[in-house]
């Protein structure tokens, strides 16, 4: 030990002869397979897009004109509009390594608020809608606060919030449905999202436009603004993000509030889609699982920080395509669920594989 | 003698009954590399956290450039030009090199796109990031947009040091920069640290690796039982002395005299 300062200290001098290429950043030639792997790593929405294209192609070939028509293809969009909007909200939460089980219940509750405020209290429809959106945002703020400040697991917070919101929805609405006839006559703005226009057989509703707009705006915000980068960083490694100077609490709060607001929009889209306001709409019970399914099939990692909103959008469309295609083919509806189950497992397997970067 | 760039006086931090820092003094002079060594539990990480804003000391004061400062968070310390490279590196593995370098201080585009749509100026950030990496001799960076998780340990450390060097105007604190690295990668990072010093920024280096400490440091702060035991000159002492001081096997001259 005592001579360690003498001969011991130049133990690295033999390194001068060693290769110095270790710390270089050169990309290794990995061949076609490696490049595909890299492409998936850089663009995680590629897998669901390929699956979606393949599904449309297969149904198009087997069912012909009946499926491959503007009317049918836009029908898919109409059928996925609610799940698509909910999946956008779910994407934000899951990117921060959370999960939101209350999205569907929030959407239903917000639609009930919009309807009941307008009809029960005689508030003008625009104000009623604004109240619905505000309450959605508020519920999101409560969940976000519980997750960020009280440090409860998102699963537990939103599992509780799901039950609370759903129960509040039944209690407040007294289980009353507002009929579509009444909406059309006295508050047409509530059904605004159901407004449709046709272009050569293709039918587009404002709800579909809203869904696409939400996805486009979120895609921009997540990719090109500091806030979007912070959402990814917080989901990837919250401690690291905080040390690097990200406002973790602010980011989580804003994500849950934005998700709540989007759930409010989903409630408005629901009124347009169904024409009526019903507190017992199935979305309240299955909306959470449907949106998580779309997000997972879309290649967004449940561990947070990875994936793109386009993936979730494609995921929702894949589910819609399977449902409609298989129904048109006359298959038992259970085949849809079976295939979607396989897709979920496949998507997560692909996600795990993409994460293995040192192949 | 020149004034210390960063100075701590009587720093005390207690966790319940445990006193992690006990009226500790600390001096970092301009342009030097000061190594901080100490056995596990000696309180050196608490000292570093106090200096980087991650821990608020119960007592004592910190002076930067002779002026008293207090940090409520690492972000505030950064505002004063004190950058820390944590042992965990504080990087998001799934995000790119550029994203990580500018995390929390992104550059927005000028004009409407930046102020109204809050769009990031990716081209400018890439240019600056490339420039900073080049400054430190990491010239072999090819794809600055590749995810940090695709880099080796040494490359990640290099990016973290480059990030600190790019924004740290006063002091850079490096916590165990070579602990997780192999021999060759360590060498690269040590060269990087010397490059940073050559640019005049003083560095606090926390390390368990005695050969690295003795090679780089201008002075060595030996931490023991929550306070500064002594500051030794690596040229006048052996590694054996240093280890003996920090473990209590031997008392340094000054302490025995006092």
UniProtKB/TrEMBL annotation, chain A:
TM ranges: 45-63, 75-95, 126-146, 152-172, 199-222, 252-271, 283-303, 309-326, 335-354
Primary location group: membrane
List the Pfam families hit by this protein, alphabetically.
Answer: BPD_transp_2 (PF02653)
- Answer whether the UniProt record assigns the keyword Cell membrane to this protein: yes
Q: How does it sit in the membrane?
A: Multi-pass membrane protein
Q: Where in the cell is it found?
A: Cell membrane
Q: Which domain of life is it from?
A: Bacteria
> Which UniProt keyword terms apply here?
Cell membrane, Membrane, Transmembrane, Transmembrane helix
List cellular component terms (GO): plasma membrane
| InterPro entries, A to Z | ABC_transp_permease
Q: Is Zinc one of the keywords?
A: no
Q: Name one GO molecular function term.
A: transmembrane transporter activity
Q: What is this protein called?
A: ABC transporter permease
UniProtKB/TrEMBL annotation, chain B:
Family annotation (Pfam families): ABC_tran (PF00005)
Domain (ABC transporter): residue spans on this chain: 6-250
The source's domain of life comes to: Bacteria
One example GO MF annotation? ATP binding
Residues crossing the lipid bilayer are none
* UniProt cross-references to InterPro entries, sorted A to Z: AAA+_ATPase, ABC_carbohydrate_import_ATPase, ABC_transporter-like_ATP-bd, P-loop_NTPase
CDD domains, per the entry:
ABC_Carb_Monos_I
Protein name (record): Sugar ABC transporter ATP-binding protein
Question: Could you tell me the keywords of this UniProt record?
Answer: ATP-binding, Nucleotide-binding
